[in-house]
Design brief:
The chain is an alpha/beta fold. Strands 3-2-1-4-5-6 form a six-stranded parallel sheet, sandwiched between helices. It is globular, with a radius of gyration of 14 Å. The two termini are 25 Å apart.
């Protein structure tokens, strides 16, 4: 079973969330295990309870989900510290302005989208 972590965005202006409860419900029906950082969907109108009802586990902090094979968020991470090699990280990335971050992903064996 693949584990997926849904991160809470760190930028206070960001109102989007990477997965909504309907997505969670579909993915869990396919055998995925979903962990959602508490409060991740609040600014998008989705409570922790909605994610729980959809089949997700709510976790207190992002680092508690770093055992996941897939990590999803909207904006790029501030750091990759604690993310294990072989993880697929999906978020917006800026390859022209974030070369150091991308090099860190590559040298740590973490896959990412561009």
């Amino acid at each position: 079973m693949k584990k997926v972590l849904v991160c809470k965005e760190k930028d206070e202006r960001e109102t989007r969330v990477a997965l909504v409860p309907d997505d969670v419900k579909k993915l869990t029906s396919l055998g995925f295990e979903i962990k959602v950082v508490s409060g991740a969907g609040v600014k998008s109108g989705f409570s922790d309870e909605a994610y729980t009802k959809a089949g997700a586990a709510i976790i207190a902090k992002e680092e508690d989900g770093y055992d996941s094979e897939i990590i999803v968020r909207i904006m790029k991470p501030e750091s990759i510290e604690g993310i294990k090699a072989g993880t697929l990280h999906l978020s917006y990335m800026d390859p022209f302005n974030n070369k150091e971050l991308l090099n860190n992903f590559a040298s740590s064996g973490i896959f990412t989208s561009l």
